[in-house]
Protein 1
Amino acid sequence: MRDLLRRDGVRALVRRIDAATPRDRDRAVDALRAFAILGVVCGHWLVTALVADSGTLHGASPLRYMPGLAPVSWVFQTLAVFFLVGGQVGAKGYASARARGESYGHWLRVRMLRLFRPVAGVTAVWAVAAGVMLVSGVDAGTVRALGKLVWSPLWFLLVFGVLTAATPLVARLHPLWPLTVVLYVDLFRLGLDGPAALGWINVAAGWLVPYCLGAAWACGGMSDRRTGWVLLAGGTVTTAGLVLFAGYPASMVGVPGSTLSNLDPPSLAVVTFGLAQCGAALLLLGRLRRALARPAVWAVVALLNLSAMTVFLWHQTAMIVVTASALFLYGPLPGLHTAPDTPGWVFARPAWLPVFALVLLVCRAAFGAYERRGGGRSAVVRSHSPARTPESHHA
């Protein structure tokens, strides 16, 4: 009887979410956002390790010891999809706001509040946690390593906030312009031994490329499959050429100890790789829309988007909690505290992902309501409100 009631409750929730979703909502956009979120989370959990060494914890990456694992980064480096979706819904939302007579200042304030409000929670918790650890005698190097894991992904929000503020201008900008900037920056800093600091121009220019593509998508461009194929094929071939013949790393994420990173700052290779990802995303839109017409599939995507910022902000904390707790209770464990330098670590690591996910669900229960705070609509409708994610907001 209890199982029957539980199934009936799930079915009722699925029906309620489906009924509350506007008929004209493009569910495929939410699916792309969910894919990007899961890519970031799983990528960090798989290629980031906290190694126990003489009573301290320090970060390490299996990509440093086993370069052959670089293809893993091709699957889980999904930031270009974040910015593609962000540009699409940002431009569309701004156009809708203008049509309603809403000022740019009001539109931007609402989005910045929704984007950065959840950051306050993780900031407060980790400020207290860092202080407690230092007072209790935890090694300062360990505290720095843990803090870096939590704070380093947040650069994304700053860049996204800047691009969101520039949406009215971006909507008029062709993606080839920022792509050309990235090309010349890399030519000067890498090909002509120019100042390395030039690379930081690419932090804005590099992610502006997929954001511009998203804005063009919102304005009715890139509607044919040919565009998707051009982006996919052109991006793939160019990235392969840069890796094979121009000395760019094969990994699309940063690798500790490497002389050149594709991500810190963004390189031409990671930008062209992002173009290929954007092309693949556009080609999948039709299939995604057909799949998401099924209420149960859509409910999963909608619920993930409901807590997108919570998942993004707290997924590293979940991994840290599991790692530190297990070390305290059981000592060093394979795939969790050991150096990621053997195939044994690679096989053991996936077994820990469900544990990380379980703790992340606890974090979602504790902090998800703060992310969803806001008035005016029902909780179910707000559950797929675009304003709940770092990427942007549907109109």
Protein 2
Amino acid sequence: MSSTTDQVADFADLAATTLLRFATAGSVDDGKSTLVGRLLHDSKSILTDQLEAVEAVSAQRGQDAPDLALLTDGLRAEREQGITIDVAYRYFATARRRFILADTPGHVQYTRNMVTGASTADLAVVLVDARNGVIEQTRRHAAVAALLRVPHVVLAVNKMDLVGYEESVFAKIAEEFTAYASDLGVPEITAIPISALAGDNVVEPSAHMDWYGGPTVLEHLETVPVSHDLTACPARFPVQYVIRPQTAEHPDYRGYAGQIASGVLRVGEAVTVLPSGRTSVIAGIDALGESVDIAWAPQSVTVRLADDIDISRGDLIAPSANPPATTQDVIATVCHVADQPLAVGARVLLKHTTRTVKAIVKEIPSRLTLDDLSQHPNPGQLVANDIGRVVVRTAEPLALDAYADSRRTGSFLLIDPADGTTLAAGMAGESFASQARTTVQADDEGWDF
């Protein structure tokens, strides 16, 4: 094995063993923030002054014990209302792994925030109140996790202390959720009975549930296998900036700067520039001011090509042996995140990696009904928090991978061209949604691409 291959392997192993990105989700008052606070508190990942501040606020409210939810509910409005509004990111570590945690809101109107928090997650913790069981918002969060291809889902059945720690209650909820999430295509589901308030099975095993022999939440987070090996995917290099110093020292230097989205780039490799389709060979790679023979995701580098090709921001450099297909007809599943509806015929901007193009929504074939996973055909529009299939026609070709193959180059945003508002987050290609399409009607208003 060559030394450069060893470097790539060592980098992938380091990422896989030391970092886990995970998101929490659940309905209102299911205890997400309390669970996160318990994780931070019991794993000794909070500072003394932070705990003292929480104790002071809790005492002002007349509470006997510190309200650990305040460790994540940082906004003033969140503390006043006792709810989570925005995504709260927390960074902590144990002896076994580092963590980036996204605590997402439970209100239906904030489902868009869960999309943000889970979009880069390797694992999602979905909380359920043991008294209420699986409800519509639980199904919504499971659907979002499945759409975003989150590989691991933990069902945390919380507030077991309020149902007498009954095994039958836990078993019924776990069976219902597992069946639903499996139908969505979630590859791995782990159910854990907990009490975030009392600390049962969060960091330490519960003394009240001897019938449960599985891991605690933290133990599972520390040991779940997670791969960050972006080098296993085909190389994708979206160009962010063209570097032309035109100085006496570098009169002919032309480099293309950006972050490698996936895969490995090597000097001497034949590449194709998309969407133009022009081909060349990598003549050099510059990283941190030094020339290197190899670079891999997610490094930021400057690539130099052997041929003088017209390349600008938004172009994609990929191996000629395995380039993505280009298309102007994007078929995808979207999570609508704006207050304003997304209707058939809407003029939008589509942002994919570093490329932004004009587009029009040609069809909305279906909207997902979360109760039974049925498809409501041809709804005409999607409103806030809807999940549906869309067909978008772009003004220029895009080099899109299927989201199932690459979360980085298979995702995109739909943006309102008038004010820059993000309308929807899209996942290209297959999903659990229906692939049925209707005939695309011609557009007569000047945006018929």
Protein 3
Amino acid sequence: MAQPVSDWDHHPQPLAPDSAPAPEYGTGSLADLLPTLAAGMAVPGLTAAIPELTPADRNCVFLIDGLGWEQLRAHPDEAPFMTGLLATSRGGTGRPLTTGFPATTATSLASVGTGRPPGAHGLPGYTVRNPDTGELMNQLRWQPWTSPKVWQPYPTVFQLAHEAGVHAAQVSSPTFENTPLTKVALSGGTFLGRLSGEDRMDLAAEQLAAADRSLVYTYYAELDGAGHRFGIDSDNWRGQLMYVDRLVQRLAEQLPPRTALYVTADHGMIDVPFDEQHRIDFDEDWELRAGVALLGGEGRARHVYAVPGAQNDVLTCWREVLGEQFWVASRDEAIAAGWFGRPDQVEQRVYGRLGDVVAAARDDVLIVASQREPKESAMVGNHGSMTPAEQLVPLLEVRS
């Protein structure tokens, strides 16, 4: 009879990179949404990748920053209108979309606008290394500046739609009109800036009615901001959710004929406790720092760039220290596991932007950097990884 294995003989195995729930690239990710809608309006060169969606002459995408599928389902009282639409998600299947990895705003907006996965559009994280300069680049704030067209050379779906005679418009905060991220991810057609959410909803409805074929995008950011500052278990966040629910209803009630409105998001969010068990400080951990030249990404989705020759040592160390809480992969392992798109979609110009080691959190933990990233390290709500709370987003539908 076999003897039981004692605790001191048991060596937990690190999480395998291919055990992470990779996004549904090609069938049900954010990158598949606009190509599907535009293909339904006969825009050349695009394929309807989400089979559950039915074509419409006029399409509107309302992207609510930070509205995860799990968070919406957990708050029916604060969001009664959107809760009533949950059964319509993803063409009436009642299922969510996946955002793409990492589940973060810059990456997701580029996926939405270009219709391509992160390994192709080239914005694969909050901060990534620029192989040409060796510096970390913040792709949300676009610092340090680099040529947007060089960094992301593909046309957006809005540009392709505009060239095909579809009326394309973006209705958002005036702050975003000339940002590099807008240029690489959402440019094409007409940009219309409005400060209030109500004005954006009203103008989006007007733009939908402006032509027989229309593709309109509108955006709201403050729910995400409340989550970062106060957490998704806060009155501030719930108040924002109540407000955005009213915005969705306001827009839905104004849709012109032959319109499909899709309400989605760029990522979900989780609250992470402020203690050493849940927040591992890279700046205070000599093991994690050993052999690391640059720390990129964000707390739940790290790109780790090793000094030359130390890649294997860094991978081994990070796996030993974090492997039961994070999926820790080499660059090639992450690509092979489909984290950034199908392996054949990860372009050579993007390859060097990915970390030598990529770490994605499974548990409610962060790798903070209290000295290098003081503002980010102080956030209550966080996102980036492939857990359902971060990765799944709604695709609510209203038709007129």
Protein 4
Amino acid sequence: MAESRRAVVIGGGIGGLTAAAALHRGGWEVTVLERAPSLEPVGAAISLAPNALRALDVIGLGDEIRDLAAWQGDGGLRTASGRWLSRADADAVAARFGGPLVLLHRATLITSLAALLPPHAVRTGIAATVADPGGTDRPARVSTADGDLEADLVVAADGVRSAVRRALFPEHPGAVYSGFTTWRVVIPVPGVEFASHESWGRGRIWGSHPLKDGRVYAYAAALTPAGERAPDDEKAELLRRYGDWHDPIPAVLAAARPEDVLRHDVHHIAQPLPAYHRGRVALVGDAAHAMPPTLGQGGNQAIEDAIVLALTQAPGSVPVDGNALCDGLAAYTAARLPRTTAIARQAVRIGRLNMMTSRAGIAVRNTALAALSKAAPLLFLRSFEGIADWRPPQAPYAAGKTPAGNP
């Protein structure tokens, strides 16, 4: 049998599976090592913007995911009492950025990505880290409880607490607490119709969004000390914090069971890494640039990472040319580090804006948002310029207005 180029992907989340699918499409033999007992993701829903959907086009998945678009008509930003601060609609977003905004359950995306891989490519219940990152003259080596694996390329997609990141960059301080915690639910809420919205209060936000399958995705965030948990259960905590907010929030809370509510503290990488690769190992997604969810770009940037990484490793000869492979990883860092650093910093700034606690500051903020929305209804979309209009560095997108790596 002919020898093939071997890639090991550590982490079976969205970034890891996208990288695996893209590399497999490029002729690599891929093994995905996921420490959890199954690929069922921890989380609820994910919003995919046009930039991520164009990246998924490269592996033939974009249109399948676009068909899941559910946001119709008006949506926008509200206060805790229900007053609209700004409005937009799906057609305006699609026209501005060349495609829809798609909201879907993470499990749906994980299933679609995994289906692009050959049988037995994904191995669950296996924790892994990098014993040797390799170099131009030698392959990388991955350690597991079942023994070591050699790989021409290793993709580390092991999340915000990445063990691989610590191994590659031991002097880096790692992720820090963002100052707030999040709650998420995906549940049916029969008989309730509403416009997709995010609502801002004092040090708190709430979002309610209908999914195409008929369920509702709702999330909340609030300033809290790290590690704090409800004395009873997290549904009760949500009722205390948001029970008197505008409709449909009380109906969503009434439909949720305590076991439906997921709670996670938010961490981000405040100090950018010096590079997204070392040796033959590349970091993608939260392992490289964990960011607050305030722009909804965490998963989107992981998908971009994965596609750009695979495109830097064009089909080549076996045995692998170590110099060409490492040059490709340097090109990956050069393309991704400036862009993701800029987006992560913008997400931090947005977090400060929507988590304000000063009553006077909130009044000024809300008045300004409402006035700007009336004067220029699409002005709020400017925060996504240079983000949602990104295009992969491959035909047909390579000739587009926004080249890869442009922040």
